[in-house]
Amino acid sequence: MKSLDVITLFFVVLGALNWGLVGIFSFDLIATIFGDMSVLSRIVYTLIGVAGIYQLSQFKIMHTRWTHAEAH
């Protein structure tokens, strides 16, 4: 499960950085790399959204799981 936590965290951070670039510089990194609303861009945006939902729903569980793992 920790691998899934880290992978989804990566996508959430990627999404946050992309939104920061859009807000500050009007530059969409995902669209630049994969094409403006191409199939690949939409897949990446979907993965970021699903990762955000997962991170939000698992926040308390992850905290408990990681705290318990560090104690051992």
UniProtKB/TrEMBL annotation:
Keywords: Membrane, Transmembrane, Transmembrane helix
Protein name: DUF378 domain-containing protein
PANTHER family referenced in this protein's UniProt entry, alphabetically: MEMBRANE PROTEIN, MEMBRANE PROTEIN-RELATED
Domain of life: Bacteria
Organism: Candidatus Abyssobacteria bacterium SURF_17
Transmembrane regions listed in the UniProt entry: 7-27, 39-56
Pfam family, one: DUF378
InterPro entries for the chain: DUF378 (IPR007211)
